[in-house]
Design a protein that fits this description.
The protein is an alpha/beta fold. The protein is built from 15 helices and 17 strands. The protein binds zinc ion. The site of zinc ion has 6 residues, from loops.
Length: 440
Amino acid sequence: MNTPPTWDLLVLGQSVLTLEPGVAPIEKGAVAIADGKIVEIGLVSDLLEKAPTCEVLDAGNCLVMPGLVNTHSHLAMSLLRGLADDLPLKTWLEEHIWPAEGQHMDRETVALGTQLAAAEQLLGGITTTADMYFFADAVCEVLAEAGMRGVIAESLIDASTPRCATPEEMTAKQRELCEGWQNHPLITPSIAAHAPYTVCAANLIKEAELAEEFGVPLQIHLSETRWEVETSIEQKGASPVAYLEGLGFLSEQVVAAHCVHLDRRDIEILAENRVGVSHNPVSNLKLASGVAPVPEMLEAGVRLGLGTDGAASNNTLDLLRDLQIAALLHKSVSGDPTTLPAATVLSAATNGGAEILGLGDRVGVLKPGMEADIACFALDKAHTTPIYDPWSHMVFAARAADTRHVIVRGKVVVRDRQLTTMDLDEIRAKSTKVAARISG
Ligand SMILES: [Zn+2]
């Protein structure tokens, strides 16, 4: 007689969408998990027969798929959600966001804002998030405790931040973060330079060297606005993308957020250097930055992920909304409804994002050997009935609130729409108090 396998958890779904290329959805499918990893995927009946006494998670009315990956965010800015809307970028930043950050963002508020953002993201089916902000060690602590996967950076800028007076202090914090958090099961430390127009060449080169030394992702905002590109050409004689290439900054480790204003050569440079691009359509639309040439980038082989950006410029961290808007936007702009099909968008929001964050061998598809980062989306709502095509369903019909269960590295962090690792009422109460202080 065979001994039953020692699995920790068996997720029993209505349908399992592995997102492995060429693999069809598995109806009445199940996923077996042991030691934080996926060990087997098959039919509910077969896996239950193999391990009849294994603990189960009932996702019987759900689509079970890889957790979503948010490739660009500033988590603690969730506390600034809706603080100043409908304003030009310069006024918004200089008169509202930067003063509020300067006055109110300290270690404690960054930790609180990060908790709020982690809660929102987990409840919306996101299992991995990138972050570039301040007090990055506090961000890492919050995410590790929340059981969420993160690629986290202390952001460098040639100015003071709420934490550091000089760029030298910032690089010291970056080095400390990389040394302190390497080999953590959920947290990948990262390096971030704010943008090519706010960080000098010497510091950009230093940041690229640090990222190379530690072998970690290198985040940056790139070619977000027309002003940025025009100023770069005027002052440096090159587009921001060409300028960074000239400095030797670009590599497979780079995660470039936005990339809205690119010419044909810029797109070639991004593809040649295997740069990962985070497309953030809601933020770009809200700040009227423009429309990133996503179909052209994909055509050229640029690696793509999707991001929300911070909640001050989105205003939610509902990545499914970014999926939907990405698909709709590029169809409309190209005048071709076959542009950016649902499967492409869903892939960018899962395995594509994981790839550009350097996690492609660990998460982003469901298959044995991968870490068990899984989201279960309810299919029993009016707006999710019926279902013909799970890819289009997730892009065009599903919403963050459809998230029923979420598992990160084998641990159930959302069960029946409730967080298991955080007290949302307490986080909300504290956030409301901080907001009262911010609005003065
Ligand atoms: Zn950003």
